[in-house]
């Protein structure tokens, strides 16, 4: 019933797009993220178990699963914010299970993040919000002197890229949700990230805007070769915009495959009550905390 987790082959280019890197390069590309046998437990209660994940340059991977299935925890484990109790996690050349403090900061500066609530500073201008992305470069900027002209130019170019350069001087709070998420994406790009993690980035947007934000994330993956991991709870959006789908239920990875090869039935298992299928769900799904 559940889809067997296939060993993930080096990816082919996304459908309907012309990647800047050639197919041959993609095939030989090393994954920027490589997770094997990941287990995360809070108070000895497993919330992720035996999870494998690869992210290759240029691809957008959808992370699916019901609320509480472990999507955010999986993302946190990629930036050292989740207690990994077994398995290996490699991100952009860093081994997260064996990482010094300084290296952890370096790693976080290489991971661009986008959140459901945008997490902008509402009263600051759009441009300044984007500029704060440069602060992730581990103390590279002396704030007493302000941001450099080069930083400002880059921030403006990124705003242009995401289609809202004309809003640069407006306070972030004056923008619509879709525009705010574009600012957040520009801010993530300001970091020059090697990967992008987007945790439910379109959950607060209406469907039309949701599509355009996902289209932007896909463009970034393809044009910049930056892999994007995006958690979604709307299946049609995952089908339309992702190259691959990884599906969690009760902390276990029940689905992993190319989006084009997964049927609706393959994905339905993610939204069945875990209690109805104890064998597939395992212990993680049964150990509930009082919510
Ligand atoms: N800091 C934490 N302490 C204890 N339990 C947590 C913590 N973070 C997440 N969990 C639990 O882990 C499970 C997965 O949560 P989460 O990763 O947020 O799921 P999702 O993002 O798919 O909704 C949930 O049961 C949640 O209650
Ligand atoms: Mg979540």
TrEMBL record:
Q: Which SMART domains match?
A: AAA
Would you tell me the Gene Ontology cellular component terms?
Answer: membrane
The UniProt keywords, alphabetically, are: ATP-binding, Cell membrane, Membrane, Nucleotide-binding, Translocase, Transport
Q: Is ATP-binding included in the keywords of this UniProt record? A: yes
Q: Which domain of life is it from?
A: Bacteria
MF (Gene Ontology): ABC-type phosphonate transporter activity; ATP binding; ATP hydrolysis activity
The question of whether Nucleus is a record keyword is answered with no
Listed InterPro entries:
AAA+_ATPase, ABC_transporter-like_ATP-bd, ABC_transporter-like_CS, ABC_transpr_PhnC, MetN_ABC_transporter-like, P-loop_NTPase
Using the record's annotation, list all stretches that form the ABC transporter domain: 33-275
Q: Pfam families, alphabetically?
A: ABC_tran
Q: Which PROSITE patterns match?
A: ABC_TRANSPORTER_1, ABC_TRANSPORTER_2
Q: What is this protein called?
A: Phosphonate transport system ATP-binding protein
């Amino acid at each position: 019933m559940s889809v067997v987790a296939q060993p993930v082959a080096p990816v082919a280019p996304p459908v309907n797009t012309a990647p800047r890197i050639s197919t041959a390069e993609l095939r030989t590309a090393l994954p920027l993220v490589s997770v094997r046998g990941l287990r995360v437990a809070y108070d000895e209660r497993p919330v992720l178990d035996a999870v494998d994940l690869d992210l290759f340059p240029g691809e957008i991977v959808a992370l699916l699963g019901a609320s509480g299935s472990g999507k955010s925890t999986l993302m946190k484990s990629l930036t050292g914010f989740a207690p990994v109790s077994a398995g290996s996690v490699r991100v952009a050349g860093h081994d997260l299970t064996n990482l010094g403090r300084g290296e952890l900061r370096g790693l976080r500066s290489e991971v661009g993040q986008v959140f459901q609530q945008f997490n902008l500073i509402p009263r600051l201008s759009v441009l300044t919000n984007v500029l704060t992305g440069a602060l992730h470069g581990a103390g590279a900027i002396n704030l007493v002197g302000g941001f450099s002209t080069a930083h400002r130019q880059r921030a403006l170019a990124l705003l242009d890229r995401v289609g809202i350069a004309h809003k640069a001087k407006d306070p972030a709070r004056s923008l619509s949700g879709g525009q705010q998420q574009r600012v957040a994406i520009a801010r993530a790009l300001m970091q020059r990230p090697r990967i992008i993690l987007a945790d439910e980035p379109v959950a607060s947007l209406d469907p039309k805007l949701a599509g355009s934000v996902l289209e932007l994330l896909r463009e970034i993956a393809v044009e910049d070769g930056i892999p994007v991991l995006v958690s979604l709870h709307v299946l049609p959006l995952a089908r339309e915009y992702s190259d691959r789908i990884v599906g969690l239920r009760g902390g276990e990875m029940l689905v992993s495959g190319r989006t084009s090869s997964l049927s609706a039935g393959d994905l339905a298992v993610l939204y069945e009550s875990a209690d109805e299928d104890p064998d597939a769900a395992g212990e993680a799904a049964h150990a509930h905390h009082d919510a």
